[in-house]
Amino acid sequence: MKKAILVFLGILAGASFLPSQTSQPDDMVLKAMRDEMARSRQLRAVGALELPYFFSYGISDSENTHISAEMGSPINITRLKVRIPNITVRVGDYDFDDTGHIYSGIFTGTRFDETWPLDDNYLNLRENLWLGTDRAFKTALESMGRKKASMNNTAAPAEKLPNFSRTEPVSEVLKVDHKKIDEAQWTARAKQLSSIFNSYPEVYSSGLEFESIRGATYLLTSEGTAERYADDLQWLYVKASGQAPGGMVLHDGVSIQALEIDQMPSEADLRKVVTDVAENIRALGKAPVGEPYTGPVLFEPRAAAQLFAQLLGDNLRIPRKPLADAGRNVNFLPSEYETRVGSRVLPDFFDVTDDSSQTSWSGKPLAGFYLFDVEGVKPQPVSLVEKGILKNVLMTRTPVKNFPSSNGHARLGGNYGARSAAFGNLFVKANQSKPLADLKKDLIQMIQQQNKPYGMLVRKLDFPFSGGSNELQALAQASSQSGGSARPVSPPVLVYRVYPDGREELVRGLRFRGLSTRTLRDIMGASQETALLDFVNNGAPLAFLGVGGYLAPSSIVSPGLLFEELEFEPPRDELPKEPIVPPPSRMTK
Amino acid sequence: MRILLVFSLISSCALAQAPLTKVLVSELERNFNTLKQKGDPPPYFLGYEVTETESDQLMASDGSIEGEGHSHLRLLDTTLRTGTPKFDNYRRVGNDRPRFTSATPMALDDNEAALRQTIWSATDRVYRGASQRLIQLKANDKLRAQADDSSDDFSAEKPEVAYLTTPEIKFDTKQWTDRLKKLSAEFKQYPGALAAHISVESERVTKTLVTTEGTRLEHGRTFARIVITARGKASDGMDLSTFESFESDDPAKLPKDADILAGVKRAGSKLEALLHAPLAEPYVGPAILSGGAAGVFFHEIFGHRIEGHRQKDDAEGRTFAKSVNQSVLPDFLSVIFDPTQASYNNVMLNGTYAYDDEGVKARRVPVVENGILKTFLMSRAPIDGFPQSNGHGRRQAGLEVVSRQSNMFVESSKKVSDADLRKALIDEVKKQNKPYGLLFDQVTSGYTTTGVRGLQAFTVVPLTVYRVYADGRPDELIRGVDIVGTPLASFAKIMATSDTMQVFNGYCGAESGSVPVAAIAPAVLVSEIEIQRKERSRDTPPFLSRPTDDGGR
Q: Which residue of B lies nearest to A109 if distances are taken between CA atoms?
């Protein structure tokens, strides 16, 4: 589950389900890891000022197939075999080690272990482990030196939190099997699906990416953890954009993922999902521009899941601020829930749990299932919110205030020597609910009472975000300026005016204003109907694609939501002119 | 002595346009005509270049494969010019280097709908950038002082039409896998090499270029290379490396295993010797640069300075801008750039091409004749006194064209045998009362600061350097050498050259990205060269010894 080299080349923080079995014998990789780690304990003798107390060897193997297509044609088809190491050494002790400083993990020396043997040559593996351990040890020494230097001139922090929590070692060396993927079939499918956009001249640009990662992950630690397991992901992502009359840029996308290739939807279902994106661009181009609005808003279950994925996902983990020199500005985004443990974060009829040991829900596979997190800890089911009160957070082995231990949710890369927590399978449950149709009636009743001409209904958010990085930046800026979160919430793609007679009218060009986790406290109602959403969390805001690195496929189940009051605003950005030359699809032949 | 070879890129002439070319031309006309009518400002020129690359790579170390890849990509670059050739959107002002194009991936099959959509979308994007910049330039023009160089922004050239076939090449992955595993196992004999690799790459690049002036070009090249690198760290922390490479225009023509193995052994044994060699001391005195070293030397300190675009650039040092028809090198030296030569003495040349990236036909360009500077390397961006391109406008896909080097030939009329050159070095060492002279055997590319802000200095990275003693002692390898000096001063000090030319093939990186180049030069005797000790990494070699098969110590 390592840092990736290429865009779209990601390594997983998950695992496919395998029936539990007794541990398999070591293969050459594990043997080399065990032997070199045993020898590396000699580094204590060399340590002088600082002694190593923890060694961790991780290796992520994968075979990746990447197919990208546009308008029925292949753009790029790549097959790649990679082996990516993650070797860490910690010096000091669990209470105080080299991590948690702004310079933790930075190595200024020469690296000799950049490429690794792809086969099982024992001696070559040992040599790379030797060079990698040496580098990791030197990195830890350097980081510790800088940390101590900073602390020399800063007052001791009020809370003394250990840097690393203890955990029970886990030994599970599992058989690794991969289902074969039919590359020819998926290439044909990618071309076929991307050609759906050819019938939509309103779509100016579109693209489809398919990625199949067949991986095996190894982890060995000096505490006695030894793991090997299969780590697969199949992922299809489609996006399209167009331009409405007047210049507004429209875009939409959809992301389909599954741990196993035979869990991917059928061709017919994929066609439907891709066609929906094209239809959305078409419909949005014809829709009127939305007006500023403050009032009741109904989220259908899928949109609610998308909302929770962002608001809860970003905030149910508590990153620790790194140490730095006094007065130095540190680029750090805290969790909005850091100060709210024990307080009400949702209405009292809500419970939120994470259970990453579940493989399916209501007959559908759950993408957020995984055997071990990136620190080798088994995910425990966590009761995060009980009757609206925040009880627990997603934890890694980096302790935070009130939470001294990991609950196996270290899934993403993180910073400053620590990993970042993320959910696996998140379940948002409303203990009071009514049919969605009744919630819609409630919405209408509220707007009538408030003398509003219409209410608003959200069917789909732009998540994962299908726009460009410039737009993402503009969103982040606007969000913090409008009193919302410093982390923006994605704008809606499908948002409707709901008239008193029940009629729905699609509008375009709105985004949320002032939406943050605080808003969740004012949910008025939840629907009986629920939706299951899955997506691939890569740690980027709005699950923005195109960023390589750790990948954490995740699932969330949520009911629909009725909010008493939310705000929508049209963006105040300049609109680009429409192209002077009409698109080729509009050419008369 | 140079051997002229038949220009071998044309193996056959295709008489019809490829489907891609037809679609490019059709979209070119459609977009240009509409933009001319409705665009304000309207374009006066539009051109598309598609670079299609199919490549294979394999890398091995110590008997194991460490990397393999195959890729096939088609990238589109768009050049759109608004205003007039005298004043258009490409005009450089101050430090601002305009970039409108970005390599846009295109459909790999010839699906017309997909191709058209990509071309149209890229053209729209480039038009917006181009028109906006022109408007800004015109607005600011009134506020600026008159530039020193009042030449036009775009030269007039005749359109070219040629449909050349680029040969197909086969890369036998299975065979190369077996070979690299065997060859790389040899590195185990050199424990000082902490990271040592052998890699093979093979690529076929085809370019399609169409413009509104009527240029229609299909051409390309094939290339294969073996690269051997060995890196280690001396006990005092200094990083050392050695390098060997073999190039060809076809992977099937790369050397046999025996020759490659000899290269592995050279790289390995030289690295081991370097790890234990004495440190270089700062030194000023006479030296011989071998042909390969001299080639890099000339490429860096001379070649970059005669790239045309630098003569007009406010931000550049413009060393030679005012030196046309003056002596810039000793009178026995001439420097010629010739992209039409495919090889020299049966060694493939990396800087060969039939047409540059603006569609201008490649040609032989004598830049220095008997020490006198005659011209610069020119793209279609004119400079004072040089209104035409000479076929040196080049780029890596995704970047804007600037003038770049091709195959550089350094010719000498003061040639002596290698043995006599060495004798001359020793004579000079004695004359200058130095304890030794230097011999630069192998170097790799350096960097040059030609800008006004930086010091006008160059640094070439020597890999293997020897002290040559006047008293007959054997040559002594030293480590940690950096060549320094100021460009103009170095040239005056070339005393003589050998009569044998060596080829250095490489890639040059500059403003328009990485382009393949070659330098063909004799060994050179310099009366004075200055070296300093290389800055070294401060971290130590690994604390523990290398693991062994028995489980290690």
A: B539
**Residue numbers in B near A73 (CB within 8 A):** 107-109, 111, 114-115
- Comparing A482 with B289, the larger pLDDT belongs to B289
CB contact under 8 A, B547 and A114: no
| SS3 assignment, position B513 | strand
Output the pTM of the full model: 0.92
Segment 58-87 of chain B within 8 Å of chain A by CB: 59, 61-73
Q: Where are the domains positioned within chain A?
A: 5-57+82-173, 183-286, 293-317+332-569
Residue A327: band (very low, low, confident or very high) from pLDDT cuts 50, 70, 90? confident
* Burial state string for A377-397 with b = 16 or more CB within 10 A and e = fewer than 16: bbbbebebbeebbbebbbbbb
CB contact under 8 Å between B123 and A123, yes or no, is no
If 0-12 CB within 10 Å is exposed, 13-18 middle and 19+ buried, where does residue B364 land? Answer: middle
Question: In whole angstroms, how far apart are CA B331 and each of B306, B411, B428, B498?
Answer: 18, 11, 20, 16
Backbone phi, then psi, for B434, in 5-degree steps?
Answer: -95, 155
Strand partners, B198: B60, B228
Domain covering A183-286: architecture: 2-Layer Sandwich (3.30)
Tell which residue, A553, A440, A417, has the closest CA to residue A502.
A440
How many whole angstroms from its chain centre is CA A574? 31
Is the pLDDT score of B65 beyond 80? yes
User: How far apart, in whole angstroms, are the C-alpha atoms of residue B234 and residue B278?
Assistant: 11
Q: Is B107 close to A71, i.e. CB distance below 8 A?
A: yes
Residues of A in contact with B115 (CB under 8 A): 73
CA distance A435 to A3: 44
> Which residue in B58, B110, B536, B539 has the most chain A C-beta atoms within 10 A of its own C-beta, making it the best mutation to test that interface?
B539
Q: Angle CA(A177)–CA(A180)–CA(A182) in degrees, nearest 5?
A: 170
Is B542 in Cβ contact with A134 (below 8 Å)?
A: yes
Phi, psi of B149 (to 5 degrees): -105, 120
Q: Per residue in A529-588, pLDDT tens?
A: 999 999 999 988 888 876 667 899 999 999 999 999 999 999 877 888 999 999 997 765
ipTM of the complex: 0.91
Smallest CA–CA distance, residue B126 to chain A, in Å, is 11
Length of chain A: 589
Let me know: does B463 contact B440? Beta carbons within 8 Å: no
With a cut of 50, say whether residue B552 has pLDDT above it: no
Strand A425-430 relative to strand A549-569, pairing: parallel
**DSSP code per residue over B276-319:** TSPBP--EEEEEEE-HHHHHHHHHHHTGGGGBGGGGS-TTB--T
The rounded Cα B311 to chain-centroid distance in angstroms is 19
Asked if the C-beta of A61 comes within 8 angstroms of chain B's C-beta atoms, the answer is no
Q: Smallest Cβ distance to B30: which of A46, A76, A581? A: A581
Give chain B positions within 8 Å (CB) of A74.
107-109
State the smallest CA–CA distance between residue B218 and chain A in angstroms.
21
Strand partners, B21: none
**Cα(A107)–Cα(A96) distance, rounded to whole angstroms?**
20
Q: Do B68 and A579 touch (CB under 8 A)?
A: no
Both structure tokens of B416: 């002596």
Radius of gyration of chain B (CA): 25
Q: Which of A113, A121, A583 sits opposite B117 (nearest CB)?
A: A583
A127 reaches B (C-beta below 8 A): yes
Q: Which chain B residue's Cα is nearest to A242?
A: B121
Q: Which of A78, A116, A134 sits opposite B66 (nearest CB)?
A: A116
Question: Would you mind telling me the total number of residues written for chain B in this entry?
Answer: 553
User: How confident is the model over B105-152, as pLDDT tens digits?
Assistant: 999 999 999 999 999 999 999 999 999 999 999 998 877 777 777 889
